[in-house]
Amino acid sequence: MDALLTASRLIFDPYVLWVITASAAFGMFVGAMPGLTATMATALLVPVTFFMDPVPALGAIVTATAMAIFAGDIPAALLRIPGTPASAAYTDESYAMSKKGQLDLNLGVNLVFSVLGGFVGVAILIVCAPALAEVAINFSSFEYFWLALLGLTCAVFMTSDVPLKGITSLLFGLAVNCIGIDPAAGYPRFTFGSVELLQGISFIPAMIGMFALSELLRGMVHADATGAVIAQEIGNIFSGVFGVFKRYWFNFLRGSAIGVLIGALPGAGADIAAWISFAISKRFSKEPEKFGTGHIEGIVDATSANNSALGGAWIPALVFGIPGDSITAIVIGVLYMKGMNPGPTVFLQNPQFIYAVFLIFILANILMLPLGWIAIKGGKQLLRVPRNVLLPVILMFCLVGSYAMTNSIYGVIMMVVMGLIGWLMEEHGFPIAPAILGLVLGEMLEQNFMTSMIKADGAFIMFFERPIAATLGVVTLLIWGTMLWRGIRGRPATLSAAAPGP
Fold first, then answer.
1. What is the residue-level pLDDT of the chain in tens, covering all 502 positions?
2. No. of H helices and E strands in the chain?
3. DSSP state at residue 323
4. Torsion of CA 445, 451, 452, 454, to 10 degrees
5. Which residues contact 220 (CB under 8 A, 6 or more apart)?
6. 162 DSSP assignment
7. Helix (H) or strand (E) holding 380
């Protein structure tokens, strides 16, 4: 109770409330701009949070990402361009609904169900995170090794239709993570005599480059990919929403549950949660023929899922220090920067910060309703901001942020290099998320593997002697075995399809 009261005092400080409100407006703006993602909003906020205490820093990130995920629905409904990838799954459905003259109901449903989905996500986070932390407190290096490997495995197979590209991306992230001082032997690796590289690849400039700069490059290349704004005026967006809830309450609960579940899987996140939820909605709908014509059912499922996934993604991040998505990967970097090493011990050492995160989530979802209404009302004007003005401003933030994190030009060079690599990867279909997870989890994987090998005196069987470690190990190996088996079985069919005809 004392921790909860302390957290309340920290959150309801006027400065913290101002930071949360300003971050909400920033997240709403970034999310509503086509091509700018919630991850980019988070990456751009990190240099600013460097100068903040832990609570306002967490408040800024949580609020901005929650707003950005919802705001991505606005250009999807008005322009047929998703503001963030999390809205891509139902963009066609949403735009078709707007063209039918149901723009108000469409935006109202997106806003209300985003708020409700967010509340479901944070409720499950509040219930599950402390319970899991009590279990995780007994974990040893064996369990953490398998957990990190399982997280990397999920990231590979959840983020790409082509597992080989996911594996390649992951190996790239792990290779980059090897640069610097070997944590076991203390020997420099891949530094090529550079003093800067001895400290390894600085996490934040790399993230800003791979997410923000690569988005900018993509925005410049596809600058003409905009559509016509819906001409209908925006009226009362809440009219008819209650009727939709009465009819599709089960879809809301199902979408929210799927969102939390998918969000909790390392590397998955809100984007995949929305796609899976929309597909399930169509598969089990009583009116599947209406999908594609502007049907509200799939939108209810998917928009609830992508917002509830945010809370789900924080469960592994807080309990195990394993990011649920690219946003929590950045958050973990911020937590380390603030001296709050994520994991079960943070629930014992700094419980007030955990309660503060819970309260920030609740506050962000409450704020989403009025701010979302304002953003919807001003949506058409917001979308008229010229990209040739917006993109240079964002580039300036990237440069200043990267320099501030390292206090040298080294951070800027790293940001540019990683940004170019990230852009090239995405242009050729290689997902970025596995590379980022490799960068984040590589050190955890290596340290726990080396520690475990020393404990086991080189006997690998010791990795399976503890019950939870054995379970995690078997699950991980089964996933790898299943994917390998599918690859082997699918290869003859691929070869015969590619063979020239007689």
1. 676 777 788 788 888 888 888 888 888 887 777 656 677 777 778 778 777 888 888 888 888 888 887 887 887 777 666 666 677 677 778 888 888 888 888 888 888 998 998 899 888 888 887 777 777 767 788 888 887 887 777 666 656 567 788 888 889 988 988 888 887 778 888 888 888 888 788 777 787 787 777 777 877 776 655 555 556 677 788 888 888 898 889 989 998 888 887 777 665 567 767 777 887 888 788 888 888 788 888 889 888 888 888 888 888 777 777 776 677 777 777 777 777 777 777 777 777 788 888 888 888 889 888 988 888 887 766 666 666 776 777 777 778 777 766 778 888 888 889 889 988 988 888 887 778 778 877 888 888 898 889 888 888 888 888 888 898 889 889 888 887 887 777 666 555 555 555 4
2. 22, 2
3. -
4. 140
5. 391
6. S
7. helix 379-382
Distance CA 489, CA 316 (A): 33
Residue 16, by phi and psi: left (phi above 0), alpha (psi -120 to 50) or beta?
alpha
CA angle 150, 135, 266 (to 5 degrees): 25
Contact 159, 165 (CB under 8 A): no
- Report the distance separating Cα 203 and Cα 294, nearest Å: 42
Cβ-in-10-Å burial (0-12, 13-18, 19+) of 13 comes to middle
Q: Which of 355, 458, 297, 441 is nearest to 130 (CA)?
A: 355
Residue whose token pair is 């990795």:
463
Give the closest residue to 323 by CA, choosing from 263, 387, 380, 234.
263
Q: H or E segment at 189?
A: strand 188-189
SS3 of 430-488: the string is: CCCHHHHHHHHHHHHHHHHHHHHHHHHCCCHHHHHCCHHHHHHHHHHHHHHHHHHHHHH
Which positions ≥6 away from 2 have C-beta within 8 Å?
none
Distance CA 330, CA 39 (A): 8
Alpha helix segments (H runs only) across 137-268:
141-158, 163-177, 203-207, 214-221, 241-264
- List the beta bridge partners of residue 189: 180
**Maximum alpha-carbon separation in the chain:** 79
| Burial classification of residue 387, based on how many CB atoms lie within 10 Å of its CB (0-12 exposed, 13-18 middle, 19 or more buried) | middle
Strand 188-189, strand 180-181: pairing: antiparallel
Return the structure tokens found at 55: 């609570």
Supply the pTM of this predicted model. 0.71
Contact 53, 41 (CB under 8 A): no
